Amino acid sequence: MVMDYTAFQEPRGVMRILHFVFSICAFATITDYMGIVSFANSTYQIEFTYPYNIYSEVNLTNCTASIKNDFSSDARFFVATGVLAMLYALGIMLVYLKMDEIYKTNKNYPLYDFLATVFLAVLWLSSSAAWAHALTGLKSVTSHPTFKPSSVTNKCTEIVVTTSSYSQLNISVIFGFLNFFLWAADLWFLYKETAWFQGNAPPTTSGV
């Protein structure tokens, strides 16, 4: 079947390329991160990574430090949104390439494309907000571990706690909201392809 690149000379095609690229950026930044919590000048460490279901303890000199919290549901929601958005963007780009003439002549295709984009835009907004909230909690529990004396006679002296940079996870949140903006911005271009818009368009008049 002949490839038709016409759609990629229009905003709807260009936006799909951006959707594909930035969806990958969003879930890659969250899944590729590994954080480290260090105690007593890095002598003891706790590592955490995706999906951020953290239940770790480390035995220090006179006490036990623990970090226990589960942020996996919000993290997985965000990643699932990114993967779903990437797959849809890839699939619809193939439709644009191989079936663009059918897309333009069949009124159902643009409508389904528009509704799917609305759904994914809502997913990006909700998953990004959920992950941003979870990231705030993740920063809090990793920066303030729970200390428990190893015995009744011991006391936990003041222990220096340092954490690795959260910049990569902060960027993942930015990518999430950027994806929401990109998917929402594409709605106008897709709406113009639907029968709803074309039915409301004023008829063209020929000159006398």
UniProtKB/TrEMBL annotation:
The keyword Membrane applies. This is MARVEL domain-containing protein. Belongs to the synaptophysin/synaptobrevin family. Pfam families: MARVEL. The keyword Mitochondrion does not apply. InterPro entries: Marvel (IPR008253), Synaptophysin/porin (IPR001285). Residues 7-195 form the MARVEL domain. It is found in: Membrane. One of its GO terms (cellular component) is membrane. The chain crosses the membrane at residues 20-40, 77-97, 109-132, 171-191. Keywords: Glycoprotein, Membrane, Transmembrane, Transmembrane helix. It is a multi-pass membrane protein. PANTHER family: MARVEL DOMAIN-CONTAINING PROTEIN (PTHR10306:SF17), SYNAPTOPHYSIN (PTHR10306).
